[in-house]
Write a structure and sequence with these properties.
By secondary structure, the chain is mostly beta strands. The chain has a single domain, classed as Maltoporin, Chain A, CATH 2.40.170.20. The chain is built from 6 helices and 40 strands. Strand 17 and strand 18 form a beta hairpin. The longest helix has 16 residues.
Length: 706
């Protein structure tokens, strides 16, 4: 890795020594270069949505980024604590979050081993987001793991030319309190800027004891001169959340939907008690360096370096007969990344080269910190101790060639090499020995045709591979990588008052890693190869400017998501269930938003979300069915400008689920074989768990700007 970094630095220094033929680029353009290599524009044939800082701020009252993206096309969001604070998740096109690539300033954010994205580790990060882009499907080549359903590319705060200081404060249901402070020195001596944020969020959660104690920070030092931009970033978070990932059964859902079984134990008198420290306690710190350089009128480069340190545990009270003991399961990891991108633009051509190397080193171990009636336990002993080491090296080259004003051709080739090994034990395996090397070639191509000023159509064909996770190997050492061929066909219409986009997609999988519905002993969703499968559908999106004060936006997605000849064990034999719905994949997802601005400073938004029926199993078992649901949120924003003491005061009210619906957005499904009732017959028993979401709740925010 050291040699790679030295080589990249040498290249940039050499490039910087060349004589420039253009004036200095604006700071904004230089900052966009940081993410330009993995983002798409209107002339690239990929379905995407851009979300600006202004759009985020209208609903940014402490909830996680997935919840703020809830109303984008084909998106379903979940929250363990029920109110969008704490552990949250997002599925796009019905695909689990492990298949969504997430980058921050071009640096991979997905956990390298689990491929998951733990937004709770960066609470209130949305307050430091300048803009983000969500791509659906395989999308364009990205840094890190491949995108198998979507990618979310985040750009953090840009340089502020003017100094500012502001404080955002929220109070709301479930004793929710958020306080943050943001500041910037503005551009000093036309070269330097220092900015930052400190945040604290507390919430009891809708679910019993599903509390969150969240702290985070964001610091940025920037230097800009002529055609050079340097940025040093340090950001991170510390989350302590009471566990709420066990869910509840159907009977409890009907009788006591906020009940939380996590931490349950019985004292010596047989009384029900809950362990006070049944928490997830994790801290994560990120260090990033970005060097953006305008080399000539046609050539720009960006070098990005990253170090992520993560360390924490979750604690559990365990009962085993007469034995009681408390354990902590630890994760201690480091993640190193080096990115380099070159962007060449001339006349009709745009050529982008990108290279990324990352290395992940993660220790997994468990310790017993207390016991009762459990014999002689040496508390210094670890009852499991393992390591995972993953190296990922990828290179891509993209070409966008504009044959004419009407026709543009897109080509994208990526080669990705992965070396992953594990050693030691896990909480349920004495020796997890994985030694895998993968080489994936991911080609993409497409055509964009602009018929006239208002209409354009596009088509793309992409192929990608994605490796299994550590948890996948724990559950099945013979698990295979998944393969996807993605076909996308779209039409966009746009005039001054009306925007419409329709996107047809067909995603053809081999060995897709689908969720079985079950969870492992640490709460991670279990996946399995499903053989052949597909997802196909149409995504419709529109925006109508009815008047200067009234906007109406809608999106609706119809899809079929099928396993082909799905086979699994049931009642002691392998059954072929035929073509079945893929788990957690609703056929209909829609949103509608009505935005009314009677004055420039006053804004009302009425937002509705509908998610159709879905199964938590791949067998379409009626036991595993999650019913459809619809929720409606009301948002109110008023801006007091130039008050006596403040430059600006923003008052925000958000009422979520205003119609007070009882609904469930997520759950789990499991089976086990009963051989005790009748020793001569194997009977498969089915079970489910549910994560109920909050009924009517509110958040009120005040932002003060100096």
């Amino acid at each position: 890795m050291r040699n790679i970094i030295i080589t990249l630095f040498a290249f940039c220094i050499t490039a910087n020594a060349q004589e420039s033929v253009v004036d200095s680029l604006e700071i904004q353009n230089l900052e966009e270069v940081i993410v330009s290599s993995i983002r798409v524009k209107e002339n690239i044939p990929i379905a995407f949505n851009n979300v600006s800082k202004e759009e985020i701020s209208k609903r940014n009252l402490g909830q996680d980024i997935p919840i703020l993206l809830n109303f984008l096309p084909n998106v379903v969001t979940t929250s363990d604590a029920g109110a969008g604070i704490g552990y949250t998740g997002i599925r796009i096109r019905g695909i689990n979050s492990q298949s969504t690539n997430v980058t921050i300033n071009g640096i991979p954010y997905n956990d390298a081993e689990s491929l998951g994205t733990f937004w709770v580790d960066l609470p209130d990060f949305s307050s430091s987001v300048e803009n983000l882009q969500v791509q659906r499907g395989i999308g364009t080549s990205v840094n890190g793991s491949s995108a198998f359903g979507a990618s979310i590319n985040i750009l953090t705060d840009k340089i502020s030319l003017e100094p500012y200081f502001e404080s955002a404060n929220t109070v709301g249901s479930f004793n929710t309190i958020k306080n943050n402070f943001r500041f910037s020195t503005g551009l000093l001596n036309d070269n330097f800027e220092f900015s930052g944020r400190l945040s604290k969020i507390d919430s009891d959660g809708y679910i019993d004891r599903a509390s969150s104690d969240l702290k985070s920070y964001f610091l940025q030092l920037s230097y800009k001169k002529d055609k050079t931009l340097l940025k040093f970033l340090n950001f991170g978070g510390h989350e302590i959340t009471y566990q709420a990932w066990n869910g509840i059964d159907l009977q409890t859902l009907d009788n006591d939907r906020t009940y939380n079984p996590s931490g349950l134990y019985y004292d010596v008198n047989g009384e029900e008690r809950f362990h006070e420290n049944e928490v997830d306690n994790y801290k994560q710190d990120h260090f990033q360096f970005h060097w953006t350089q305008s080399i000539s009128a046609n050539l720009t480069s960006n070098l990005g370096l990253n170090l992520t340190n993560g360390r924490g545990y979750y604690e559990q009270y365990n009962e085993n007969g007469s034995e009681d003991f408390i354990t902590r399961k630890w994760l201690d990891n480091r993640f190193y990344v080096a990115n380099f991108n070159l962007n060449y633009t001339k006349n009709k051509s745009n050529l982008i080269f990108g290279s990324t190397y990352s290395e992940y080193d993660g220790d997994h171990y468990g310790e017993t910190i207390w016991s009762q009636n459990s014999g002689n336990i040496d508390f210094t002993d670890r009852f499991y101790n393992g390591n995972g080491l993953k190296k990922d090296f990828s290179n891509f080259i993209k070409s966008i060639y504009q044959f004419s004003e009407e026709i543009g051709i897109y080509a994208d080739l990526q080669l990705r090499n992965i070396d992953y090994s594990t050693s030691g034990s896990t909480s349920n395996i004495e020796e997890l020995a994985v030694n895998k090397k993968y080489s994936f070639f991911n080609p993409k191509a497409g055509l964009n045709y602009k018929m006239n000023t208002n209409n354009q159509i596009y088509f793309s064909l992409s192929r990608a591979f994605r490796e299994p996770t550590r948890s996948d190997f724990e559950n099945n050492l013979n698990i295979q990588p998944e393969e996807l061929i993605d076909y996308e066909l779209g039409w966009k219409y746009n005039n001054n008052k009306f925007y419409f986009n329709s996107n047809l997609y067909y995603m053809n999988y081999k060995n897709q890693l689908v969720l079985t519905g079950a969870l492992d002993d640490v709460g991670t969703p279990i996946r399995e190869n499903s053989g052949k499968s597909y997802r196909k559908g149409i995504e419709l999106e529109s925006m109508y400017k009815a008047t200067n004060r009234l906007d109406i936006s809608t999106n609706i997605s119809y899809s079929q998501n099928k396993n082909i000849d799905y086979k699994t064990n049931f009642d002691g034999q392998v059954l072929n269930w035929g073509d079945t719905d893929i788990s957690f994949s609703p056929n209909i997802v829609s949103s509608i938003g009505v935005i009314f601005s009677p004055t420039q400073d006053l804004n009302f938004s009425l937002l509705n979300k509908f998610v159709g029926d879905q199964f938590m199993s791949n067998t379409e078992s009626i036991v595993s069915k999650l019913d459809s649901y619809s929720t409606t949120d009301l948002n109110f924003v008023y801006n007091f400008k130039k008050s006596k003491y403040f430059k600006e005061v923003i008052f925000t009210v958000m009422i979520n689920n205003i119609l007070n619906k009882e609904y469930v957005s997520n759950g789990y499904y499991y089976t086990y074989d009963d051989t005790w009732t009748n020793p001569n017959v194997v009977s498969t028993i089915e079970g489910t768990g549910y994560y109920p979401q909050a009924k009517r709740n509110f958040l009120i925010g005040f932002t003060f700007k100096l």
